[in-house]
Amino acid sequence: MTEKVYPVQKAVKARALIDKDKYLKWYEESVENPDKFWGKHGKRIDWFKPYTKVKNTSFKGKVSIKWFEDGLTNVSYNCIDRHLKTHGERTAIIWEGDNPYIDKKITYNQLYDQVCRLANVMKKHGVKKGDRVTIYMPMIPEAAYAMLACARIGAVHSVVFGGFSPEALAGRIVDCQSTFVITCDEGVRGGKPVPLKENTDKAIHIAARQYVTVSNVLVVRRTGGKINWAPGRDLWYHQEIASVKGHCEPVKMKAEDPLFILYTSGSTGKPKGVLHTTGGYLVYAAMTHEYVFDYHDGDIYWCTADVGWVTGHSYIVYGPLANCATTLMFEGVPNFPDQGRFWEVVDKHKVNIFYTAPTAIRSLMGAGDEFVTRSNRTSLRLLGTVGEPINPEAWEWYYNVVGEKRCAVVDTWWQTETGGHMITPLPGATDLKPGSATLPFFGIKPQLVDNEGNVLEGAADGNLCITDSWPGQMRTVYGDHERFIQTYFSTYKGKYFTGDGCRRDADGYYWITGRVDDVLNVSGHRLGTAEVESALVSHHLVSEAAVVGYPHNVKGQGIYCYVTLMEGNEGTDALRQELVKHVRQEIGPIASPDKIQFAPGLPKTRSGKIMRRILRKIAEDDFGALGDTSTLADPGVVDDLIANRQNKA
Ligand code: 6R9
């Protein structure tokens, strides 16, 4: 296989913070002497009390991860206060509304005022250090204020993506026993309202049945749409912040005090509450933001993710603000009013660094080059991708058409669990290969192992593990440390297992091949097959369901569901539609099944385990090589599944 190599462009190299030599030198130090390396780089944030210990981590036994443990700091202070003396009037957030005629700019001074007020409102209503606050918001500046206000007073935020259903929101409220919720009357996306307050009301109702009582809902008025109001419980944001002071002391937090919980899907059971802590997380988010995006003082930076995902946490809010960057927050969608929106916004705000998902690139590529070329994009210097593997065609289009061969493309591989970039090019240091996330960031030690756990050297294809800790790593699953150990450190003892498959080529470049567990990646969103299955079987006509992914041109993966109905029911198109609606209600629109196949039986082993390998093959319309089916309890079901497959070429 010949791979095209794109050497670092001259102009990119000329201004880059890190060149090849520096990368190699720093990388070597970072893995050979992590205490020294991180001891130095931990100082990039301000500490109320400096740390004397740097790394204290173990992937064995009970698994314990501590960084900078005796230091005291505050994330909100680092993202705001420390910039005010020199850059108080710099724009911290550029907000671009869903409506292309609406935008606004928030300076660091204004950010300070807003965050302090909100922190005081929460304090007034009894929110204390360590309490969990759920944030269920659209992409408006108040979402960032809410995160930073929690950080300021030591409350632990749990941001729930605005596209999740009331059921999903309730599950997350209950899991972390959150009694304070911040939301908005309605969100707006692509010109359409999203009923966030209504969903919150429903979720609170569901949570109450599980004995979790939400005492306050703070509501931002975004659209003025009609909503129900629970007096005593519900509070208007604009009224509350008007009656408190614009100053609030940041709480001195231990480096290992929790900063946030973010729920993410795994291969089994309910989504897990990934817990990140204060010091190490911020150091890592800020440092990766600076070096991976080659961020220079004064750059305008835009990450198109939603704050409901980890990318929004690390690379819209915490990383950029810790670096005193100007971060653009976009309320809308890539195709409204049309597919040229991204590039119009780039021109309008003179964006220098642009970070998005491969699924968006693929869908815009499909719309034709004119939507891109009608803009001039001369401000753009760097392009990034995240969330899923990028196919070389989409990469080339991004590089050639969007970036006009002038911009480096950084394909950043990382996870909710890792807090920040793990395998990624550095623009001035790394020659690029389309489709490869390239090389490890400082301090990251990747390792490939086979299914038996044997370490693979050199060019190889295997399961991706990381053998030692880095500051941005998650510390535990909220409320379930045993699950943390089980999920990440038990498959290959003493190593962090990522769940991803990966190939390393002869140059040592890493190529992520996708999940090797039962996690789907649909348009860059992580979903557990188990979650979709449990949503399906919660429908009264469904007796059993098995869900697998299949290759999808735009989404990366589509959701393919095999559904067995209760005796005596017939699988009709109307029922298909009803099931799609049902899953959307249970989880949210991102989990909408693409294909539903009614199956009288599923292929199971004699011990009753569903053979997903077979189901995947049939969903891919590639059943020539089904492998060994002799262990099936009833090999006959396979013929029926093939005959009725929904992805017939
Ligand atoms: C940041 C984020 C994590 C999973 C991860 C992998 C996939 C992310 C990728 C990528 C190939 C990349 N993934 N970035 N695969 N190339 N550049 O997306 O976090 O939502 O937790 O998803 O996404 O499969 O394991 P998260």
Automatic annotation (TrEMBL):
Its cofactor is Mg(2+). It is an enzyme of class 6 (ligase). The keyword Transferase does not apply. The modification N6-acetyllysine is found at residue 609. GO terms for cellular component: cytosol. Residues 23-79 form the Acetyl-coenzyme A synthetase N-terminal domain. CoA binds at residues 189-192, 311, 335, 523, 584. Residues 531-609 form the AMP-binding enzyme C-terminal domain. Acetylated. Deacetylation by the SIR2-homolog deacetylase activates the enzyme. It holds the Pfam family AMP-binding. Mg(2+) binds at residues 537, 539, 542. It catalyses: acetate + ATP + CoA = acetyl-CoA + AMP + diphosphate. The keyword Magnesium applies. GO terms for molecular function: acetate-CoA ligase activity; AMP binding; ATP binding; metal ion binding. Keywords: Acetylation, ATP-binding, Ligase, Magnesium, Metal-binding, Nucleotide-binding. Gene3D superfamilies: 3.30.300.30, N-terminal domain of ligase-like. Residues 81-468 form the AMP-dependent synthetase/ligase domain. It comes from the Bacteria. ATP binds at residues 387-389, 411-416, 500, 515, 526. Catalyzes the conversion of acetate into acetyl-CoA (AcCoA), an essential intermediate at the junction of anabolic and catabolic pathways. AcsA undergoes a two-step reaction. In the first half reaction, AcsA combines acetate with ATP to form acetyl-adenylate (AcAMP) intermediate. In the second half reaction, it can then transfer the acetyl group from AcAMP to the sulfhydryl group of CoA, forming the product AcCoA. Belongs to the ATP-dependent AMP-binding enzyme family. PANTHER family: ACETYL-COENZYME A SYNTHETASE, ACETYL-COENZYME A SYNTHETASE 1. This is Acetyl-coenzyme A synthetase. It comes from Rhizobium rhizoryzae. The gene is acsA.
